[in-house]
Amino acid sequence: DETAVKESLISFYRKLSNGNPGSGWNVNSSPCKDQWEGIICDNKTHSVRRIDLDASNFAGKFDPSILCNVQSLSSSLTSISLNDNSLVGENLAEIANCKQLTRLQIGGNRFSGNLPDSFSRLNNLKRLNLSWNNFSGVLPDLARISGLQELLLQRNQLMGLIPGFDFPNFRQFNVSFNNFTGQIPNGGGRFPVSSFIGNPELCGDPLPTRCRPLALEPNHPNIKSKSLSGDQLLMYSGFFLVGLSLFFLVFFKLCKRKKKTEEKMDSANKVASADDSFYKQTSNTASGEPKTFVNKSDISASSSLIILTSPEVNGLRFEDLLRAPAELLGRGKNGTVYKVVCEQQGMVLAVKRVRDWVISSSDFRVRMKRLDQVRHPNVLSAMAFYYSKQEKLLVYEYQQNGSLFRLLHGTQKSRDFDWSTRLGLAATITNALAFMHQELDQDGIAHGNLKSSNILLNNNMEPCISEYGLITVDTEDKPSISSSRSDSVPINAFKADVYGLGVILLELLTGKLGQNNGMGLAQWVLSVVREEWTVEVFDKNLIREGASEERMVNLLQIAVKCVDRAPDTRPSINQVALMVNTIKEEEERSLVLET
Length: 595
Ligand SMILES: Nc1ncnc2c1ncn2[C@@H]1O[C@H](COP(=O)(O)OP(=O)(O)OP(=O)(O)O)[C@@H](O)[C@H]1O
Known about the structure:
Residues 323-583 form the Protein kinase domain. Keywords: ATP-binding, Kinase, Leucine-rich repeat, Membrane, Nucleotide-binding, Receptor, Repeat, Signal, Transferase, Transmembrane, Transmembrane helix. It is found in: Membrane. It contains 14 helices and 26 strands. By secondary structure, the chain is an alpha/beta fold. It has a 7-stranded mixed sheet, with no helix packed on it. A hairpin with a 4-residue loop joins strand 21 (384-387) and strand 22. Helix 9 (419-440) runs antiparallel to helix 10 (492-510), helix 9 packs antiparallel against helix 14 and helix 13 (549-562) packs antiparallel against helix 14 (573-594). It binds adenosine-5'-triphosphate. Adenosine-5'-triphosphate binds at residues 329-330, 332-337, 350, 396, 398-399, 403, 449, 453-454, 456, 466-467.
């Protein structure tokens, strides 16, 4: 039934494209042997495995019934990917007949309405991306799909409770900017706040909004009408009292902090240079308005574009953010970072103000949307973005444990920063970077400025790569900001990240500072290694600790390859990941043997 397969693929394509035939898609050729564009087949059986038609400018309809009701096609099809088109849906419920699907990706389209219950019958599904659409209503019971590893639902209008997913199984999870309500189920706390933000009625770990004890919410759907037992009443009143005292404690702390922040605000403003017209303090006006950091005219400028699907993030409006007291955290060559405390919403944010970024609003939007779609637990995603001609702001969750740079070179060096922690950190950063490179390779979006001050430590002291994709690299030693078009991105951008990673590895091994794009450190290490005094390069603390010299030398060799002057000679990030992970496994094996 190759004819049936061909016919259904062709009519599927016509529906997507509003009647245009796909290039090379015709009944006289074969989808597998003639390699129809967007079709990927099994090499041995010559059956269609994947349909990959992301960003193909489709503005028609996605009608899965055309594919899934043809048995010879649905029995082999494992992946449908139609991200970033302008599609609407038809007969979506029929998707359940494509039982072999492990991947369904239809993010960044114009789908709307309820998600059919039949989605929950896709038992083999591993990755589901429905983000950046207009889906509404409650979720089908997706928690029954036991193998699900990735669920991206952000930027829709979905509502109701989040089902009790098997979170430990998940690699990626994002439900931000919907209308979900109630408590985040157990285990959700392993994902960052940015995975849940933008659902004003959602509460619990990792969000700063605590959930009220159920007993205090008479209309909560989870409350059965039966009356509470004496024990339960005692327990809930206990919760209530603890909650109340916590509230007062936090309230008093916030009041104190506000005072401090205002003091810091003054000094921060002194540091800000004259060109810092955005976050500036205007004096008390005659009308008695409070001190603010920003001129009203800056916000209401008609060219402003605030990219938030919902106008509120946990009750925080962008205007509030811009007016909140800001403390200067640091000024790098690409811009300035402020810590902003939004007390009312209980949120602490880091706002990056990127300097001199020449990028059109549509390129900016496309780039940010793409970056938002690619999530990794060890990469910090921006929670919101702001674009105007003069200003580009990115809002991140503030990471109170600081950066790897501070951990390595700060005044309060941690005594626990031993070899196995450093090796674990190296592996986590490398794996996260490898994931991002793989996912964003087609888009040409590399990190662009990888260094230890852009590796932040989250609440669990796990490293998170921050500021991914804010700049691109023109030449080896001259990073600069440019547009998001993949055709203007030099291939070197990815190799420049490998160089940046190499310098981070050297910093971890030597404990020394990687200044001046790490050139000084790289040259010093190379000269010492050339003289065959290799052991001299390692951090004295590592030697004292008795860390395995063999494994340190192995990691050093990887780092040296990464900082090779010729970009083409540097290994790919996947090769680096393989090598670093091998060293880490050896270390783990040796620890097991020791105990
Ligand atoms: N989300 C965040 N939470 C906490 N600290 C942050 C956050 N983002 C940045 N920082 C810190 O703010 C400081 C300034 O950051 P910034 O990125 O401007 O400087 P940089 O990394 O030295 O230079 P560059 O502009 O080249 O990236 C750094 O110490 C950085 O670690």
